[in-house]
Structures are given as structure tokens and as C-alpha cells.
Amino acid sequence: MRADAESSEATGDTAPALRCDGLVKRFGRQAALDGVSLSVRPGEFVALLGPNGAGKTTLFQILTGLFVADAGRAEVMGADMREHPARALARLGIVFQQPAIDLDLSVRDNLLFHADLHGLARRQSLPRIAALLAHFGLAERERAPVRALSGGNRRKVELARALLHEPALLLMDEATVGLDPASRAQIVDEARRLAAEQSTAVLWATHLVQEIAACDRVVVLHRGTVRFDGTPAMLCAATTQHDLERAFLALTASEASP
User: Fold this and answer.
1) Does residue 117 contact residue 164 with C-beta atoms inside 8 Å?
2) In its keyword annotation, does this UniProt entry include Amino-acid biosynthesis (predicted)?
């Protein structure tokens, strides 16, 4: 089921920050992704909604160069992930579902290490680190080992790290799993602010329907294929449901095997 008026090829003249065309990834006979196409434009907050096992993490692993697609094409700011992976990866930031940060290093040293990986000179990285830590309320904890932080603050460090090189595209892969409601809301609000104020393209993968109410578009991924691409209101209308959770359940249940 697709929304013709608001498809992944969103209207407007702005070129997509992310474009995926016909991505296929198989593990043996199982297709984790089976012809996935979607796009995200600068300043757009797109939710990638799907139940566990839908293919969301496989898609993100392709977009971050951890996997190579069997077929199809993925571009970040016009750079093809297969042909020019370094150019593509330089323009994106990622917060993975599983923590990917050194717990024994300090907050500051984690960020400095990431800056060095991206080739940022200290005259660039140090002011950016200071600004990000102040923004996330972590300036007083910069010398603390990450292990000493709460789960919510660890996620803020990971988000600061993802933003340090000023990416055009931000990927959030189930980034609020395990967080308390207040911390989850802060992370969601920050991603929305980046899209609205800095024109960052945001692709937010989740299975939590309550996180997507204010997104620009929602892409429903189920069993490796895109089943819907449109606004939250259009999803409700397409499934004749009055709220997003029921709409999502109705759509994915209708695709279940007998």
C-alpha cells in the first residue's frame, strides 16, 4: 500500500540527501530487503516504522557500509555507497541501536577520537565539542568516563558524536530503546529540531508508534518491503483507522502469513 500524493519521491526541487532505489539483501534464501526504495530530503524528518525483523537494521547496515547490497543503489548526497563509500559516509551520522561508544574513555576523549577519524583539525573539533556538550547539558561531565553516565546521557554523547562532523544525513536506528520516557522524548525532540532548524535530513527507524506522530513522512517496512510511504494522517486514512498505532497494526497484520 503506497500513498501516491506523498511518496518517497517527495515533491519539491531539493535533491534528496538519501536516495535508495531497489535495495535487495538476502541471507541464504531469506530476503531481508526485497526491492526497498525511499528517499529523505534535507530538513525532512522521516520515520521508518516496522516491527522487529522488518529489515530496518539491515537497511541501516547497508547505509553505513557494514553490509553491501546484493542489488539496487543507495546514495548519500549524490555519492553512491558502492562506488564512493568514503564520500557517502563522510556526509552521514549514525546512532546505532546497540551502544557503540567506549565506556572507559571520557566523554571528551570519545568525541575527540571520532573527530580524528573524520580528519577534523583540533581548531575545528574542540569548539564543536564544547558547543555540543553545552547544548546537551554535559559540559560538567566531559572528563567523566562514559560508564559513569546514565543511559539517557550516554545516548546524548552518541548523538553528539554523530553530529560532530556536521552530517547532512542523520540515521537513528532504534536509538531510544531502553531509555526512560523523559530521555526518549529529549532525543526525539533533538532530532526534530535538527531537521527544522539545520535542514538535517533525518531517517528515524523505530517500532514505537508514539515516536512518529510529528514526523513529516512515515515509511512502513514489513518483511523487507515498503508497504506504505506518506504522512501519518495518510496512513490513518489508508487503513481507515483513527490513530497511528491501530493503523500500523492494521497494515502489518494484513500482510501476515496465514
Assistant:
1) no
2) no
The SS3 call for residue 176 is coil
Same domain membership, residue 142 and residue 247: no
Q: What single-letter amino acid sits at 161?
A: R
Distances (CA, A) of 29 to 41, 70, 152: 33, 13, 39
The answer to whether residues 129 and 85 belong to one domain is no
Instruction: Mark whether 246 and 177 lie in a shared domain.
Output: yes
- The distance of Cα 157 from the centroid of its chain, to the nearest Å, equals 16
Residue 192: what residue type?
R
